[in-house]
Amino acid sequence: MEVCFPFTTIVCLLFYYAIFLNNSSLAAADHHILSANQTLSDAQTLISPNQVFELGFFSSGNKKFLGIWYKNTPDVVVWVANRNNPITNDDNRGAPFLEITRNATLVIYTRRTAESTIIVIWSSSNSSATFPSRKNPSLRLLDNGNLVLLDDDKESYYIWQSFDYPTDTRLPGMPMVYDPDIALDKHLTSWKSYDDPSPGEFVYRIVNQGLPERVIFKGAFNRRYRSGAWNGLYMNIPTFYNKAYTPELVFDKENKLLSLQNPYDSNSSILTRMVLHQSGTLHRYTLNDEKNGWDLVYTIPKDPCDDYAKCGPNGICRINRAPICECLKGFEPESRSDWDSQDWSGGCCRISPLSSLPNGDGFFEVRGVKIPDMLSFWMNNSMSISECRDECLTKYNCTAYTQPYINNGGSGCLLWFGDLVDTRVLPGADKNQNIYIRLPISELAEERKNEDLELPSFKFATVAAATNNFSKENIIGEGGFGLVYKGNLSAEEEIAVKRLSGTSGQGLEEFKNEVILFSKLQHSNLVRLLGCCVTGDERMLIYEYLQNKSLDGLIFDKDKRAVLTWPMRYDIIMGIAKGLLYLHQDSRLKIIHRDLKTNFGLARSFKVDQIMARTRRVVGTYGYMAPEYAIDGKFSVKSDVFSMGVVILEIVSGKKNRGFRHQDHHHSLLGHAWCMWKENKAMELMDECLNESFDELQVRRCIKVGLLCIQKLVEDRPTMSHVILMLGCEGEVVPEPKEPGFFLERSCSTSNLSTTPNQDSSGHTITITVLEGR
Length: 774
Description:
Elements: H1 9-21, E1 33-35, E2 39-41, E3 45-47, E4 53-60, E5 63-70, E6 77-80, E7 97-100, E8 106-112, E9 117-123, E10 137-141, E11 147-151, E12 154-161, E13 169-170, E14 176-179, E15 184-186, E16 188-193, E17 196-209, E18 211-218, E19 222-226, E20 248-251, E21 257-261, E22 272-276, E23 282-288, E24 293-300, E25 315-317, E26 325-327, E27 331-333, H2 336-340, E28 348-350, E29 361-366, E30 369-370, E31 377-380, H3 385-394, E32 398-402, E33 413-417, E34 423-425, E35 435-440, H4 441-450, H5 460-466, E36 475-478, E37 482-488, E38 494-500, H6 508-519, E39 529-535, E40 538-544, H7 552-555, H8 566-586, E41 590-592, E42 604-606, E43 612-614, E44 617-620, H9 627-632, E45 634-636, H10 637-653, H11 669-678, H12 696-709, H13 720-728, H14 748-753, E46 764-767
Helix pairs in contact: 8-10, 8-13, 10-12
């Protein structure tokens, strides 16, 4: 009995007679075209004109499929015709064939060997028995990977094309489409497994729920990832890796996304593809011609914060912080024990309920975010931002608002009702990509109290404009606090902006501490603090800009370090020492810096008679911290002396302590300096570019004083007043140094993993548990 599906009986008969009217010895396919009087057998292939793609039958396990792959990398299949109906050897079926029927339908069929019965495996779905016969239908494989069925008399019109039926791969020129008006939904569906092209459980498609976005689903309804909403500029992806990957978007008059595709450029040498992997991740690949293999360019989700609802309802994900999840302002963990074990799925609940009184609530701004999922929302495209705020306050269950479109100065109003789900800070987001969380006035009053700092305040927009929206080109340094940007308030006034980083172990406490201490300090060797900026989650300090930039930007640069002659380096050492003495002894406050490498965020004021303090939270720059501080959390003026010793040895040698390497041992710079001193080779430590300008007595004295400063025991280190005396007075007797702190030779593996000379490690946090008797 003949088996035919999914045709009607009439189509089956047409197909049956079409085959037997042809010559029984079927002609072979010719290059990239299959004509109506030809068949493609199991052993034959179509190849695109420029040898880019190939069409044919391939085996996967004990099943066969018709597919398209790259000619030079045949293991990379980009399209499968019969993924729902694989060809098997059941019932003694013969080899498969591909053919065009008289009514311009593509069919894959086999014959049952014993009965010569034709079994239809797959057919192109657009053809039917009512279609008129085409004069000269042919099948062609194009260089963009599209398999097209056309009439030779009307080559501009495709009867059918594979790009209308994507499988797991999107190629340039292949659109993703969602147009319900014409019942079109072109999306990607993953393979079932790495060797089974059958439809898997993940789907990647366009979603137009409120604002357009792209979503990866697991099953029919469970979201795995969402790109974030279209905001008039981008779908929360502010930068693309290459113009070749930048999609073209087509919207309707209501701003619904109809299609998305990467344009195909026949003149481009770049071969690229995007694949929905069976694990539910999107992979972007480009062909590496030299390796004749594929390079992975990026994946989506790109980090854990991209996982849908990573931090649960009313949580926010910040990939640069540890842990990455925290509750939005005004919320607390639903289950503290779950959060302590880093299970954030339960999310957060309100600390205080919203007010039912007029003017009882306000809003807290969160900047640079992927806005929450639009699960329950209301949107108006014409409202202003102030009207949107008022609208939210009039609705008792409104929890947040934003401007949905940030282009052309911003427009529209989007309100959320209920929980805020899948919110994350988006690195590189536009400065206007913000959301306003509704909170009781009591919560906002506490926030204002925390930010009431006695210092001139700069508006965020002013600082953003001055730094070219925090452009990478404006970055001039990095420390424990975060990145430092150069800015221009005017043609005459330059500033340096320190922006609190999410990766820093420092937070609001250190920020306020630096402001308070700096406002009470005045010294010629201290840079002047001009003001601060506190807006939402943003914390920034604005300083006067120093033309000479930072010391390490010169002294550790092989091309610039020669500018610093020995007299200049000696003056720098003395200047730092005098500034530190001012903090310890001569200022209105007795201040312990704690992180000489970076800023005053970690500084602590002491009482006049206080000698030492202890903290459970050690924050600072590795390589500069004294042993007692790094290990036990104890700090004093002698902790700063240790850091001073490290700085002296770095200035003399032109090398960093952290990341230092030597071919004969695995010591740090401190250990190397001690070895050179013991072997009476101290001058070998000196930077070789100082050979024309050095003073040997001064260099030796600086090395010796530097070694005294880094002594292991606190009591063996000098005070800063004694340091200045030993450095500046040739007649002053300098004691012999002992073995320094951290004099441990690293293993080869540890050394190899350490930071390179051009890198640094700032702002690390160590938590110390102290056992105390009751």
